[in-house]
Design goal:
Layout (H helix, E strand, L loop, with lengths): L4 H8 L29 E4 L4 E3 L1 H7 L5 E6 L4 H17 L3 E9 L3 H8 L5 H7 L6 H14 L4 E5 L2 H10 L9 H6 L9 H10 L12 H27 L4 E7 L9 H8 L5 E8 L18 E5 L9 H14 L7
Parallel strand pairs: 3-6, 3-7, 4-5, 4-6, 7-8
Antiparallel strand pairs: 1-2, 1-8
């Protein structure tokens, strides 16, 4: 799982304004109401404040080449929306590819063996190094693809390579095997200035006098770019191998919201593709102001979900947990 996720998640939760009822262009009586459970999601098209069902959302996406659904990892509202959208998109356009940040490209073979029925689920989880929350969050999506014989793309960069780039810098890639180099993007560190600024703010990096990062933060950022560039390249590879197919890509919202990260790099590589971004927003506590003012740029569509519970209220326990989390990422050698 993305080792940057805790810090990035905290940083992306900007204070939201409150909410007022917003009519749908399709149904003048439709209003935006608060999600009632952690499973619920309220979908909005920000450009005209239209409230949408997931069926209406799918209809708007029927001709889109790449549909990118951002998520807060482990949030049931994100994953239920992804599953419903996957099914509805398939019903109107069966030529579909499921692309997932949650599997790394070096485990594509192990994932393919499961899709072909050659291994069981536990074997796949172990062999493909699936995320800890695979069964609770991603099983329904993979099983839908498996039942309908749809390609599932392990889109992320290898975790060990990302970790070592973060520790040693981009030059680490010079020492990886030729077979792995061929699987990684030819330009693994393509960048956009806006994403750099967002990343710096998210991890708390301070601007230097010359507006550059510290050496350590620069390496960390390069590791993040390797993830985004790899996912963009893998999406394009999947499209090339399956012409005319629609890609449904699942990723942490930091990689896609505001049209940055993977999305910006995908558009740089293939500006002719149509790409739609669907971004999550936590439901605000203040109900006095329209909620979309500060969230309008986050995606072509946004969906409101209930906030996640606080992980900690004891600051010392939180620090201990973070130290343990990051120490586990540094116990393997990059030599």
């Amino acid at each position: 799982m993305n080792v940057f996720a805790p810090a990035l998640l905290i940083a992306t939760l900007s204070a939201l304004n409150g909410c007022t009822a917003m009519p749908s262009s399709k149904d003048p009586d439709a209003v935006l109401t608060a999600p009632q459970t952690q499973y619920d999601a309220r979908i909005i098209q920000p450009e005209n404040n239209t409230v949408l069902t997931h069926e209406q959302l799918a209809q708007k996406l029927i001709d889109t080449d790449v549909v990118i659904v951002g998520e807060y990892h482990g949030h049931h509202g994100s994953h239920l929306l992804q599953s419903r959208l996957q099914t509805t998109l398939f019903q109107q356009r069966p030529e579909q590819i499921l692309s997932m940040e949650q599997f790394n490209l070096d485990r594509q073979g192990q994932l393919n063996r499961y899709l072909k029925g050659e291994t069981g689920e536990t074997e796949m989880i172990e062999d493909a190094d699936a995320w800890d929350n695979y069964r609770a969050s991603y099983r329904p999506l993979v099983e839908f693809a498996r039942r309908h014989n749809l390609p599932v793309i392990a889109a992320n960069a290898p975790a060990d390579v990302v970790r070592c780039v973060g520790r040693k810098g981009p030059e680490y890639l010079e020492g990886v095997s030729d077979s792995l180099k061929q699987k990684l993007p030819s330009a693994p560190f393509m960048d956009t200035p806006a994403y750099r600024e967002k990343f710096m703010a998210a991890i708390g990096a301070s601007h230097q006098a010359d507006d550059t990062m510290s050496e350590r933060m620069e390496k960390t950022y390069k590791a993040q770019l390797l993830r985004d560039n790899t996912m963009a390249a893998r999406i394009l590879q999947a499209r090339a191998e399956h012409p005319g197919h629609q890609v449904l890509h699942l990723t942490g919202t930091f990689h896609s919201e505001d049209g940055l990260g993977t999305v910006a790099l995908l558009k740089q590589r293939a500006p002719e593709l149509s790409v739609a971004v669907i971004s999550p927003v936590f439901w605000p506590s203040d109900i006095n102001q329209p909620p979309l003012d500060s969230n309008r740029p986050k995606g072509d569509f946004v969906y409101f979900i209930q906030p996640l519970p606080e992980e900690f209220r004891d600051a010392e326990r939180e620090r201990e947990a973070m130290r343990a989390r990051f120490s586990r990422s540094t116990d393997r050698s990059c030599d």
